[in-house]
Amino acid sequence: MSEDTFRSVEIERTTLGEYTVRNARGGSISMGMGQDDTFTPVELLLAAIGGCTAADVDHITSRRAEPEHFTVRVTGDKIRDEAGGNRMRNLRVEFTVAFPEGPDGDRAREALPRSLRQSHDRLCTVSRTVQLGTPVTIVDVAGTGED
Questions:
Q1: What DSSP string runs through the chain?
Q2: What angle do the packed helices 103-118 and 41-61 form, to 10 degrees?
Q3: Which among 23, 50, 34, 31 has a CA at the least distance from the CA of 130?
Q4: How far is it, in rounded angstroms, from Cα 142 to Cα 71?
């Protein structure tokens, strides 16, 4: 892992309930509150969890054989908990991956379960962060908010 550990995105309000998320490399994605086809914050969380593991698994297994099919489905329940707060539970990442017949495909199929475990146990920053319960700090940097 490199010494450069800092990661960031910037979110700009475009209109009520609609935002543009930008990364430092110039990429952008629209985010909303579910009134249109933009991704909601919860959907982006699910995409980040699945995407992180997908990238790990793809990187490991594709060294052995190019997949014929590679789909990841991430599901969960958005609930209001006992404390009255919203959160997700029952998070599940389902992989449907198929490799070609032959020795290379066999090696990829053999590597799949191990790559899933490696991603979950140590490689995927996103799901590990969620699972370990890393604290989030919210700050009004402009100092305009009132107590």
A1: --S-----EEEEEEETTEEEEEETTS-EEEEESSSSSSBPHHHHHHHHHHHHHHHHHHHHHTTT---SEEEEEEEEEEEE-TTS-EEEEEEEEEEEEE--SSHHHHHHHHHHHHHHHHIIIII-HHHHHHHHT-------TT-----
A2: 140
A3: 50
A4: 43
According to DSSP, the β-strands at 28-32 and 18-23 are antiparallel
Full-model pTM: 0.90
CA distance 71 to 139: 37
pLDDT at 5: 94
Joined tokens for residue 82: 């006992």
Residue that is written with structure tokens 């991704």 in the block = 39
pLDDT confidence bin for 31, thresholds 50/70/90: very high
Q: Which residue has the tokens 């209001």?
A: 80
Residues 138 and 57: their CA atoms lie apart, in Å, by 33
